[in-house]
Amino acid sequence: MPQIEIDGLVLNVDEDGFIEDPTIWNEEIAKALAKTEGVTELTEDHWKVVNYIRNYYLQYQIAPMIRKLCKDTGFSLKEIYELFPSGPAKGACKIAGLPKPTGCV
Amino acid sequence: MSTQKAVDFLKGRLNKKLIASLEVCAHCGICKDSCHYYRASQDPVHTPAYKAEKLRKIYRRYFTPTGKLFPGLVGARDFDEEYARELKDIAFGSCTMCRRCTINCPMGIDTGLIVRTARAMLAAINMVPASLKAGVDLTIESGNNMGVTREEFLETIEWLEEQLQDEVGDSKAKIPVDKKGARVLYMTIPLEVKVYPLSFIALAKIFYAAGEDWTVSSKMFDATNLALFSGEDDLARLHAQRLRDATVELGVKVLAMTECGHGFRAMRWEAENWLGEKFPFEVRHVVELIHEYVTSGRIKLDPSRNTKPVTYHDPCNLARNGGIYKEPREILARAVSDFREMSPSGVENLCCGGGGGMLAMTDYAKSRIAAGKPKVDQIMATEAKEVVAPCHNCMVQLQDLKKHYKMPVNITALSEIVANALVLPGEEKNN
């Protein structure tokens, strides 16, 4: 199993860089994963999106539809892409500690 | 685990075309430079002939007289569990079935066919990589590979319709759902609906400008057919049947497949053979429809709205395996002001490394990124700032390559770049 080390924090991840055990997620891990997705600093806006995805995942064991994410956080599509340059699936969901989604993602 | 089942499966697959591809390799090695895996690693194990040899050893052992009697003499080999694991890493992990080696082989050996046969054999003994298998199973269970429900789909379409209305400034602009007798059924993918709706909005805008009579189906909204890659023919056939049924039910003339290479290939070139019928509708890629609008003057584009240098990536299943490479270039000639060709391109394009279901297989992500390096070099040589690819799978891979190799480019769907250049009715007098 591959490991990544960011600022002294060692994480077990899959080959795509998603954390192997979604239950161990915490804010420190989110910060570390953010760096792998080109997000150097997690602002309040980032946290709003990340926490929304995380809570949705804990409730439904799946990532939210982009429509729900935009409607419930109040961000437009464009703003989401500005916050997470690699997009909602590989960017935001990875930082929120979700497993990799199925399909060509 | 019984590996005999896989050998029996191979027996059922041995037709003239496959036997010829298994028999005639002259080991000339010309194929090596055609393969992006070999180009990236320079490792002989990535030569297409070497990969195909993995299956040839089994073929000789069980289906040729010398191989049966004196396997050692002809490099034949028993198909045991250990060998099955090695075959899995080759067939699933180091070939995207892009078929660039096939068109460069002097003997015309179809290594893509050999690799797909090996995948199907492994599928027969339940050895499809788990992450790919999960996508196939979810498709069969829910109708699409991300498990999006009909309710979620309908809510999203309503939301996208609002965005379309804002974009075109017309509160009457519609995304018609389940409209019987429409001319075109647009077959999207769950990725577009769940995660990446920008290209959907762009396409809806193009349909709006063209005055197209189009619709989407709330029953089936997944152009992808991951079973084409897992080697599970029965499941690939089932998904194609569902798409066919949804299309027939709406009575449309054209099934327009979204910007997805393999989904188009599966429906356009494979499905009628799988289902043993001639479809009562045309299967087209949306690029073909856009091309029709652009060349007939049904939509007008202003290339000065896309001034950044643009290059075009040919998805293997569109260009090499689908014959569509002139159309996108004729579109881009009218949509952007600075177009730059990669070398090589068209039918000789290099695979981005994400094809063949590679993006769905987490286990091989690292080698997928490594094998994408030749594509990165091609893109960088053009000094383009936008890379257009009419395939969401290629786009995701190109995004990953961008991140890994720090490419200073945007990755864009063809519909997005066209929508950006679109001169809407009423705007013309301002130009």
UniProtKB/TrEMBL annotation, chain A:
GO terms for cellular component: cytoplasm. Keywords: Cytoplasm, Transferase. GO terms for biological process: tRNA wobble position uridine thiolation. The active site is at residue 104. SUPFAM superfamilies: DsrC, the gamma subunit of dissimilatory sulfite reductase. InterPro entries: DsrC-like_C (IPR042072), DsrC-like_dom_sf (IPR025526), DsrC-like_N (IPR043163), DsrC/TusE (IPR007453). Its main location: cytoplasm. It comes from the Bacteria. Pfam families: DsrC. PANTHER family: SULFURTRANSFERASE TUSE. This is Sulfurtransferase TusE. It comes from Carboxydothermus islandicus.
TrEMBL record, chain B:
Pfam families: CCG, Fer4_8. GO terms for molecular function: 4 iron, 4 sulfur cluster binding; metal ion binding; oxidoreductase activity. Keywords: 4Fe-4S, Electron transport, Iron, Iron-sulfur, Metal-binding, Transport. InterPro entries: 4Fe4S_Fe-S-bd, 4Fe4S_Fe_S_CS, Cys_rich_dom, Helical_ferredxn. SUPFAM superfamilies: alpha-helical ferredoxin. Residues 22-109 form the 4Fe-4S ferredoxin-type domain. PROSITE patterns: 4FE4S_FER_1. PANTHER family: FUMARATE REDUCTASE IRON-SULFUR SUBUNIT, HETERODISULFIDE REDUCTASE. This is (Fe-S)-binding protein. It comes from Carboxydothermus islandicus. The lineage of its organism: Bacteria, Bacillati, Bacillota, Clostridia, Thermoanaerobacterales.
